[in-house]
Amino acid sequence: MGVLQQMEKFLKGQEIRFTEGLRIMKSKLTNLQNSVSKFPQADQSSPPSPCPSLEAPPHGKKFGSKHVVGHEIHFTCFSGYRLVGSATRVCQENGSWSGVDALCKGVSQCASHPCLNGGTCVEGVNQYRCSCPHNWSGSRCQQQTQRAPPEWSVMNDPEFSRKPRCAKVDQAQHCSCDAGFHMSGTSHSSICQDVNECQVYKTDSGSLCAHTCVNIPGSYRCSCPGGYELLADGRSCEDVDECLKQQHNCSRGTSCVNTGGGFRCVHPDQCERNPCSMTSRTCHLAPKTVSYHYLSLPSNLPTPATLFRMATATAPGHPGPDSLRFSIVEGGDVRGMFVMQRLDRQTGELILVQPLLGPQELSVDVEMAEYSDRTFQSKHLARVHVIVSSYKF
C-alpha cells in the first residue's frame, strides 16, 4: 500500500507538470500568431499594373479604351492628314506600351502644283485655292478670260438662242428674256442666250446633280450612271438592286450579290472542315469553318464605319466557349484600313477606319478563336470581300 501511495503521488506530480507545459506552449503559440498577423501580406490576386492612358493624336481618333496587359489601342487620322508613328500599340507586362507615339501630319494640297498659267496656290483647310494672274480664270487658272466667252453662257447654237420680248414704255423700248436665259449683245441687236446652269452651279461637291448635269434650253436635267436610277428629287442617284428585282442571270447553285451599278454571281458562301484525327495537331489548329461574305460600299464612305459582325452560337444543351478572341489575319494590303474590336462578350465588329476610293476590290480575313478554361478549342474564319463603287452614292 505504501508503494501504491507513492506511485499515485508521482503520477499526480507528472500530470500537474504536463498541464503547466501545455499552458505555456499555448501561450507561446498565441503570441507567435499575433506577431505574424501584423506583417503585411502580399496580395496574390491583385491585377497586373495597367499601362498609362493614351490620348487620341490631334487631327485623329483613338479606338480602344482598356489599358491592361494584352489589350490594343488603335489610331487613325482625319482626311487630309497622314499617320506618323505606330497605328497599333499593345499594353505590355512591364506596364508600358509597345511602339512609338502616333502623330497626324497635314498633307500639303499645293505639293502637286495644281495651279496653271502662273497661278499661285494658296493652302486652305483640307483644300486649296488658285490666285490667278490677269486674263486667266477658273478653279486652276485654266481659262483665258480675254478670248473665251463666259463659261456659263451657250453661244453660237440656235437651239439655245431666242429673241427677247420687247415692249415700248414711255417712248422707250424695254426687252427681257425668259427664265433660264440672259441678255447678250448691244441695245440695238440684243439676243437671249441660254444660261448653262450646270456651269453656273458647278461645285466640287456637285450640289446641283449627284452625278451628271445635262444642260437643256432654259433649264437642266440630271442623269445617273448605268445601274443607277434617278430619285424623285430629280438630282440624287440610287443603286438598282438587280438581285432583289430578279434582274440577274445567275445560274442555279450560285447566289446573286448586288454591287454598285451591277451584280455578281458567287458560289455557296460557307464550308466546314472534316473531323480531325486525334494525332493531327495541324488539322486541329486549322479553321473549323470558313465563310465568305461580300460587301458593296460607295466610294469615300465616311469613317469610322462598322462593316461586319462576327459572333458565336451554341447548340441547346451544349456549353459554349467561355472566352472569345477576335483578330484580323495578317496578309494583303489592308493594314491600317480596318480594326477588329469586341462589341460584347460574344460579338466582334470589323470597323473601316480609312476611306476607300473606288473603283477597287480588297479582301480582309477575320478570325474568331474559342477558348474554354483558357484552353484553345477551335477557330472560325470569315473572308470579307469588299467591292468599292466608282461613285459616292
Automatic annotation (TrEMBL):
Pfam families (UniProt xref): cEGF (PF12662), EGF (PF00008), Fibulin_C (PF22914), Sushi (PF00084)
UniProtKB keywords: Calcium, Disulfide bond, EGF-like domain, Extracellular matrix, Glycoprotein, Repeat, Secreted, Signal, Sushi
Region (Disordered), start-end ranges: 37-57
Subcellular location: Secreted, Extracellular space, Extracellular matrix
SUPFAM superfamilies, A to Z: Complement control module/SCR domain, EGF/Laminin
Disulfide bridge positions per record: C77-C104, C132-C141
Keyword Signal: yes
Domain of life assignment: Eukaryota
Repeat in keyword set: yes
UniProt domain Sushi: residue ranges: 49-106
InterPro entries in alphabetical order: cEGF, ECM_structural_protein, EGF, EGF-like_Ca-bd_dom, EGF-type_Asp/Asn_hydroxyl_site, EGF_Ca-bd_CS, Fibulin_C, Sushi/SCR/CCP_sf
Listed GO MF terms: calcium ion binding
Record-annotated EGF-like domain positions: 106-142, 194-238
Similarity comment text for this entry: Belongs to the fibulin family.
Protein name (record): Fibulin-7
Gene source species: Bagarius yarrelli
